[in-house]
């Protein structure tokens, strides 16, 4: 039977029958996917939906916990995910890039045993220019005996994730998911309204000739990163002995999706601009879910010094340096950091 006839619902039911996912987690993933469909519709309307631009302006501008101006679609996506998941019955609490602290599930709804973290609309600087953006999510177990989770209950390393994924709103809307047994890709059939399996068991090629980094930060990088990218740029005339290509969408979802599809290395290293914060990208709802998806597809993910999934979070919005993608290339980048000590 061809992949095109397997809906997300059917895929998840089959995973449940194979004992790879329990019914609560299956339904939780379905709720997240349903919310992503709603966000996809809002993103797809663009200017016609009246949702482009920032919330407020000038001194009335709305700034989120990250110190970034909130886009109307950031806020809308956050509301859609909050509302869909709060009543679902499978969660004990939620945390989002857009909210300072975690939220327990309101008393009026049943509570479950999972914690959900999400970046409702990653790459939101791309919204107004019609470039791909996406939702990233991570699912953890609520610690035993906790019914009213607080931030500390979310502070689990990435290895504790029971599911992770992203939905990219691009030329097509695509959901990429892992429940810990491979990374699978589903494309939204807009006519039918359901996600359809389009790539089972994605594999990232081990070797690559493509890197993704914001080169404008070069002068702010630490010496090992300078040395690593310097050698990539020397191409076939340098120690790497091959020419590299560069791509940077500035939406992590889009850059990671390209890497899951055809290989490459994505990096947002430590630089002088973000050193006091620990990096640019957020561990719990950006780096961790992406790292699990990448590892489950045969790739690797590191801070440059440590496997990303083993970083112990110290805060919901903790930031980390990120290197992820084709295994050999991530190992090469880590090698430059190890050499520097
Ligand atoms: O959430 C952070 C993010 O928007 C990522 O999606 C993206 O990879 C990065 O920031 C872009 O950073 P910059 O604006 O420095 O290119």
TrEMBL record:
Main location per the UniProt record: cytoplasm
EC number per UniProt: 3.1.3.11
Organism: Thermomonas carbonis
Residue ranges annotated for the Fructose-1-6-bisphosphatase class 1 C-terminal domain, each copy included: 204-334
Gene Ontology terms: cellular component: cytosol
InterPro entries: FBPase_C_dom, FBPase_class-1, FBPase_N, FBPtase
One GO MF term: fructose 1,6-bisphosphate 1-phosphatase activity
Protein name per its UniProtKB record: Fructose-1,6-bisphosphatase class 1
Cofactor: how and how many bound: Binds 2 magnesium ions per subunit.
Residues where Mg(2+) 2 binds: 119, 122, 286
Catalytic activity: beta-D-fructose 1,6-bisphosphate + H2O = beta-D-fructose 6-phosphate + phosphate
Pfam families named among the record's database cross-references: FBPase, FBPase_C
Compartmental location: Cytoplasm
Gene name for this UniProt entry: fbp
């Amino acid at each position: 039977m061809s992949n095109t006839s397997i809906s997300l619902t059917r895929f998840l039911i089959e995973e449940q029958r194979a004992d790879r996912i329990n019914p609560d987690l299956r339904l939780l993933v379905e709720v997240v996917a349903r919310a992503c469909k709603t966000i996809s519709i809002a993103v797809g309307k663009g200017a016609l939906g009246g949702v482009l631009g920032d919330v407020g302006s000038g001194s009335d501008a709305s700034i989120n916990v990250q110190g970034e101006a909130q886009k109307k679609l950031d806020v809308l996506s956050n509301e859609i995910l909050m509302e869909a998941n709060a009543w679902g019955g499978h969660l004990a609490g939620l945390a989002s890039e857009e909210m300072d602290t975690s939220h327990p599930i309101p008393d009026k709804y049943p509570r479950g045993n999972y914690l959900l973290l999400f970046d409702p609309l990653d790459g939101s600087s791309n919204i107004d220019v019609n470039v791909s953006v996406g939702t990233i999510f991570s699912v953890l177990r609520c610690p035993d005996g906790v019914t009213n989770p607080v931030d500390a209950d979310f502070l689990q390393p990435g290895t504790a994730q029971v599911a992770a994924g992203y939905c990219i709103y691009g030329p097509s809307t695509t959901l990429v998911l892992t429940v810990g047994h491979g990374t699978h890709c589903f494309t939204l059939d807009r006519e039918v309204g359901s996600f359809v399996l389009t790539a089972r068991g994605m594999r990232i090629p081990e070797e690559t000739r493509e890197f993704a980094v914001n080169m404008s930060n070069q002068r702010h990088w630490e010496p090992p990163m300078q040395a690593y990218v310097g050698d990539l740029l020397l191409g076939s005339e340098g120690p790497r002995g091959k020419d590299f290509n560069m791509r940077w969408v500035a939406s992590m979802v889009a850059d990671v999706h390209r890497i899951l599809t055809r290989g490459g290395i994505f990096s947002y290293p430590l630089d002088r601009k973000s050193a006091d914060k620990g990096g640019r990208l957020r561990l719990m709802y950006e780096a961790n879910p992406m790292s699990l998806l990448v590892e489950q597809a045969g790739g690797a993910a590191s801070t440059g010094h440590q496997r990303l999934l083993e970083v112990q979070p110290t805060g919901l919005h903790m930031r980390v340096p990120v290197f992820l993608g084709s295994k050999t290339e991530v190992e090469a980048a880590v090698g430059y950091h190890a050499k520097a000590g």
